[in-house]
Amino acid sequence: MSKTAGALLFKFVMTLLIALLTLSLFDSNPWPIITLFALVAAAANYLVGDLVVLPAAGNITASIGDGVMAGLIAYIMDLASLGFRTTLGTLVALGLFIALGEYLFHQYLENTPKVAP
How far apart are CA 48 and CA 29, in angstroms? Predict the structure, then answer.
């Protein structure tokens, strides 16, 4: 497995664990929908946050953007699905934890030359 593929797998697992911590624990959402959320959020955060915003605006801006984007994705999924619900507190906690995780993940990306951000 390449370093980039390993980093993407780590990003998905990190997003899934944070989503399970917030979306399942606080709002009792089912695991399959949380897994779908984690897949969509990790892909969107990689494509927008890591490939576009991180090189252009830096780690802090990209991390905040990733947290906000994760919260928006969860909110949109709440609006689009009857089996998935969120509260404002959960969305804020999700966004903060994602932003923190992404900040650390971006430091890894910037310090590892073989990983393509």
Answer: 26
